[in-house]
Amino acid sequence: MKIENETSEGGEASGVEVRSHIRDPWAQAPVRLIEAGCGLGVETRLVLIYLLDLSRRPQWKISVAHIQKALGVTKYQWQKARRELETKGYLTVETQRRGGKFVWVFDVYDWPHMTQE
């Protein structure tokens, strides 16, 4: 799935590819991610569950603006949720250059996943 972002260098289209790593294949939204005990804020849990669901849709294209509109979150709330997801290991973000365009690759996890550097 690709999430297209509205900003780019040189006016070129940019995008985001989201790859999910879900260990609960039968659950649409794992209950532990809905509950406060998972350690994420309410808005962050909402964003995570939405990204996990969208990542299961092959070739689905959305924009960050679409996520904000669909969830009713502001740009600030989106940025805060993204930072929290990255910090707690539910999201990793990589910037790649493909065919002259910058693409952000989001890896979304249903369990915290800390990368080894």
Commentary on this structure:
By secondary structure, this protein is of the alpha/beta class. The protein has a single domain, classed as Winged helix-like DNA-binding domain superfamily/Winged helix DNA-binding domain (Arc Repressor Mutant, subunit A, Orthogonal Bundle). It contains four helices and five strands, in the order ββααβααββ. It has a five-stranded mixed beta sheet with strand order 3-1-2-5-4. A hairpin with a 2-residue loop joins strand 4 (91-98) and strand 5. It is globular, with a radius of gyration of 14 Å. The mean pLDDT is 80.
SSE order and pairing:
Layout: E1 2-4, E2 15-21, H1 31-34, H2 42-54, E3 61-63, H3 64-71, H4 75-87, E4 91-98, E5 101-109
Parallel strand pairs: 1-3, 2-5
Antiparallel strand pairs: 1-2, 4-5
Helix pairs in contact: 2-4
